[in-house]
Amino acid sequence: MTRTLYLISSAAPPALRAATGIRAAQARGWDVCLVLTPSAHRWTEAEPAWGGTTDSSSRIEELSRLTGHPVRHAYKLPGQEDVLPPPDAMLAAPVTLNTLTKWADGHADTLALGLLTEALGLHLPVVALPYINAAQAQHPALPRAVATLRAAGVRVLLHDDQEPDGFRPHQPKHGNLDGYPWERALDALPPAPR
Question: Which of 33, 46, 77, 135 has the fewest CB atoms within 10 Å around its CB?
């Protein structure tokens, strides 16, 4: 029995490497569905395809082929069928300061946020792996958002006393895109059956 993982990516540089996280999750037995925030979708559309073509939709199409599911970024119309299977777990990665604070406050103005807020009430396993810089980490809304989400059962992998191996914010403009710890986030999820 395959379990479904929703990978929900915000507009941070690791979103452009979502294929890395998708492949790692698939290697662990997950059926992965990719949901992007509107800005992450726009960034991904602007990226050239892996094969070197410049068709603006090619990267989205390649990610869809990789997962076997449409890449979602907007709410469907009320009468439309769901095109994704229901999730067994969610991984918000990368998750930005914007997404963390809006999620903690219950905002659902994008599909990504709507799914994340609903996951709390569905009692799904949810892991959040931030990608924020040290200046953003000083914002007074961040500790409250992290505490709120953790109290609701979200495993927020941000370096602190509760998550000593969590993501360490980098200096502005100095993030290590290749060092984004996709495997650490997947380790925090319940295992998918093989």
Answer: 77
Q: Which residue has tokens 């500790």?
A: 143
Please give the model's pTM, rounded to 2 decimal places: 0.94
| CA distance linking residue 74 with residue 55, whole number of Å | 21
DSSP, residue by residue, 86-153: PPSEEEEEEE-HHHHHHHHTT--SSHHHHHHHHHHHHT--EEEEE--BTTGGG-THHHHHHHHHHHTT
The 10s digit of each residue's pLDDT in 12-71 is 999 999 999 999 999 999 999 999 999 999 999 988 766 555 555 589 999 999 999 999
Alpha carbon 56 to chain centroid, angstroms: 22
Please state the rounded mean pLDDT for residues 101-123. 98
What's the DSSP call for residue 56? T
Asked whether 117 and 78 are in contact (CB, 8 A), the reply is no
- Cα separations in angstroms, 133 against 63, 91, 189: 27, 20, 24
φ/ψ of residue 103, rounded to 5: -60, -45
Nearest-angstrom CA–CA distance, 107 and 1: 33
Beta carbons within 10 angstroms of residue 94's beta carbon: 29
Q: Which amino acid is located at 118 in the chain?
A: E
Residue in 68, 82, 73, 21 with CA at minimum distance from that of residue 44:
73
Is residue 159 within 8 A of residue 168, CB to CB? The reply is yes
